[in-house]
Amino acid sequence: MNDEVNKPPSYTELWAEKNLAKLYKAFRAVLEKGEAELSIKIAEGIERGAQLPQIVNMLDVGAGGGESTLRIVKVLSEKHNIVYHGVDVSAEQRAAFLLRALTLPKNVDINSYQITSWENFTPEKYDLIIAYHSWYGITGDDSILKLRDSLTENGSAYVLLSLDKNLTNLATQQNGEKTYGADDFKNDLNRLGITFEEEEFSDANLNRNSFINDGKLTQVGKDYLAYLYRRPIDEDLEKSIIPWLSTLRDEAFSAPGAMIKITNSPSPTAS
Hints:
40% helix; two-stranded antiparallel ribbon; Rossmann fold; globular; 271 residues; alpha/beta; 7-stranded mixed sheet
C-alpha cells in the first residue's frame, strides 16, 4: 500500500488541481436554493447521530468555497464551539472560503485551511470529518483507512456521494481511472470490514437543459461533468454521455445522494 501512497500524481490529478476552482463555479451554477435546505438537514442529522463534544475539532475534506459546509458549521455552532480545519487543492477556493468565513459566529475558530490533496494531507485526530461531494476523485484503501484512523475515539466521518448509478457508471473509463460513487465507497467499506450507516437524501435540482442544447453539452454541462469526473470531457466521453442526458426531464428534478457515516470502531474479526 505504500507504493500507492507514494506514486506520482496522474494526469487526471494534475489537471484537476489546475482546473478545479473554475469547474467548481459551474458545479454550483446548477444548484438551487434546495442546497441550503439540504445543508441544514445534514447538520441536524449530524447533531442527532454523532457524539459531538462541547468543543468540536472538525475537518472539511474538499472544503472548496464553503458554500455548503459553512452552513453546516453555523448550525452546529448553535450548540458547540467549532475548531475548523479545511483541506482542498485550490488556493482560489480558499480565498472565497475565507470571505464567507467572516460571517461565522465567534465560537467558530478557522484553525487551518491547507492547499493539498487528501492523499498528501497529514491529518490530526478529529471529532467530525465531512467530505461534502468531494470524494469522487479519491480512491484506494489507504485513503479510506486514513479517513477512519483520523477520527477520535467517538468521532464520526460523513461522506456525501451521488447515488445515481447512470451518472457515476459513465465515468468508469480512460487510463484505468474511475469516478468514485456511493456504491463504490460502500463496497470498499464492506471489503475493508468498516461498518457504516447510510441515509439517503435528495440533492440539487437539475434538468436536461442545464446540460445539453441541440444535442451537445452546454458549457455548464461540460464544466459540471468535468468537476464530477475530475478530468476533461473529451469527444468520446461526450458521445457516451449525451444519450443518457437526453433522457433527463425538461423540468427540474432531484438527484439522489447518500450520506455515509463511519466511526473509528474496530473492524470486525474476519471469520
